[in-house]
Fold this sequence. Notes:
globular; 317 residues; eight-stranded mixed β-sheet; alpha/beta; 38% helix
Amino acid sequence: MGALRTLYPEIEPYETGMLDVGDGHQIYYERSGKPGGKPAVFLHGGPGGGISPAHRRLFDPDVYDVMLFDQRGCGRSLPYASLEANTTWHLVADIERLRALVGAQKWLVFGGSWGSTLGLAYAETHPERVSALILRGIYTCTRQELSWYYQFGVSEMFPDKWERFIAPVPEAERGDMIGAYRRLLTGDDEASKLAAAKAWSIWEGETITLLPDPSFSAPFHDGHYALAFARIENHYFHHGAWLEDGQLLNNAGRLRGIPGAIVHGRYDMPCPARYAWALHKAWPDAAFHLVEGAGHAYSEPGILHRLIEETDRFRNG
């Protein structure tokens, strides 16, 4: 593989703003890199996460004009932690609004984890608007994937952390952890809501890297951040992301002719590699990188290396 690629130097956005997308929502966006350069959009994870300065650094700032935004209800978007009018298809429409704002006919779409789900939903809905598609940590949001992470599967790998995850839920309700957490996260008891938000989020933060890295769970000890993350993520997963089961893989034929890349860690706990492999088989236009010695996080060295190689590969395409 040679020397591992690292993030580009830190840069500041050249434009920031709030876009009114209707339904009472305003989404925060920022543009960075080269004004008028190769258009790209970054789709963050969660759902319920948000963008960070490091995300700008996945793209060559001398080439790309990158749009980053906080999806509905999270980050700096308003209203914070809102579940109203907040579905996959609202977000797909928001991406189109942002593309129109940029004035791009097509753009490179980059998404990781939940961002890969959203990237697939967008590209399968608007394939004519996608110049290339780079996806990391493939998650197709099937019932099996949700059960693997929130009911039985990853629980067998992390029994100590699983015990902390199930602790806020009464034993009689543990047969449906997503449903039980929904009741807690949308209830009227603020203390229980906050405790549930932290437990839900920390479970994810502690299981996404191959080796322990406390920096991923540390932000979730902040109840304000954890609340949006947990509420929105649980909301989406409770509803199966408003997708028919298997929809994204079944419709992968709509990606035909779109060049791209699939980057996935061999030991990705939240997102089993079999779904990345299935997407690879269904979308042969994309390069496929199954990264050995890596989990789920984009910042793990082998994954980061491949992601920056791929954004570099599409600089002129």
